[in-house]
Amino acid sequence: MNSELINKIKTDGIIRLENFLNKEELSDLQKIVKFYSAPKSSKNSYWPTNSKLLLYKILKLDFVKFKFSLKILNFEKSKKLKDIADKFYGSKSYLRFIDAYYSPVSNKNIIDWHTDQAYHGDKNPEKYVNPDHYFLKIFIYLTDVNPLNGCMSYIPGSHKIGYAIRKGIFEKKISYRPYWHLKDFRKLIMSEENKEYFQNYFKNQKYLLEKFLDITNNLTNQSSSHNFDYTLKAGSAIIFDEGGVHKGSKTLQQDRMVLRYIYSNFK
Ligand SMILES: [Fe+2]
Questions:
Q1: How close is the Cα of 116 to the center of ligand 1, in Å?
Q2: What is the structure's pLDDT at 221?
Q3: Which residue has the higher pLDDT, 50 or 59?
Q4: pLDDT exceeding 70 applies to what percent of the chain?
Q5: Which of 73, 173, 186, 230 is deepest in the core (most CB within 10 A)?
Q6: Rounded to the nearest whole angstrom, what is the distance from the C-alpha of residue 247 to the centroid of ligand 1?
Q7: Would the pLDDT of 223 be above 60?
Q8: Pairing state of beta strands 229-230 and 111-114?
Q9: Cα(84) to centroid(ligand 1), Å
Q10: How far is the CA of 244 from the centre of ligand 1 (A)?
Q11: 242 C-alpha to ligand 1 centroid (Å)
């Protein structure tokens, strides 16, 4: 991947890669994911991330999963996915997990506007994350996605604000309060007690904070704005920094299949 695209992930927090898979890769991966049709976070949605874990499948005599797992791991190598993560972090990255799942047709958003690395909105987390430890997510779509069918929406640049929040909390410059949900994320930034911290932090990028607050002012899950949607054909991918504000739309038209490779810059 060229440095222009890597820089775009750093600046916007996200990039889209159309036709990331060729026809054969797409049909191979579709067959594998369809075979299990595993819902998100279910046992069969996870795949081994290294050869040691891969061998367990043989020990368990699960030859089908072994064969498929090998393909999924080989695909990671042939597409040089780790190389993308290494370049993005500017240091060694680690493949933390691979999952592939199936989201059936539904009139509920897959997930509302939120940021990751936010303790799922926990009121009192036990400890705070190091802001420099975060995940890079590679989503590969195995079915078409659009605003009515399970596409991702992402607010470009918002990952920089997510980072500032985590850093402020970690360094005890601002006090913790839930910020997983967009509504709370905005409240935290706008609160009187945090004003100085954010103004200082973004003193050279004032527009970034102002623009974010402006565009998210009326942004709800029912919002008709599709400005931030990533409509893509099967075989395309998005790569994003999970600290940005994002959501997954309803799957009103057809079941959705994705394959994800998640990297971190820490062990
Ligand atoms: Fe998320």
A1: 5
A2: 52
A3: 50
A4: 98
A5: 230
A6: 7
A7: no
A8: unpaired
A9: 20
A10: 9
A11: 6
Domain that residue 256 falls in: 3-264
248: CA distance to ligand 1 center in Å? 8
Predicted confidence band of residue 58 (pLDDT cuts 50, 70, 90): confident
Q: What is the mean pLDDT of residues 164-188?
A: 96
**How far away, in angstroms, is 212 Cα from ligand 1 center?**
18
Ligand 1 centre distance from Cα of residue 163 (Å): 15
CA 64 / ligand 1 centre spacing (Å): 30
Q: How far is the CA of 115 from the centre of ligand 1 (A)?
A: 6
- Distance (Å) from CA 62 to ligand 1 centroid: 31
Share of the chain above pLDDT 90, in %: 82
Q: How many CA atoms lie within 13 A of 116 on its CB side?
A: 16
Instruction: Give the pLDDT score at 154.
Output: 96
Which CATH number does the domain housing residue 244 bear? 2.60.120.620
Lowest mean pLDDT among 11-20, 86-95, 110-119, 170-179: 110-119
**C-alpha of residue 60 to centroid of ligand 1, in Å:** 32
For the chain, the domain total comes to: 1
Asked whether the predicted pLDDT for residue 190 surpasses 60, the reply is yes
- Does residue 116 surpass a pLDDT of 80? yes
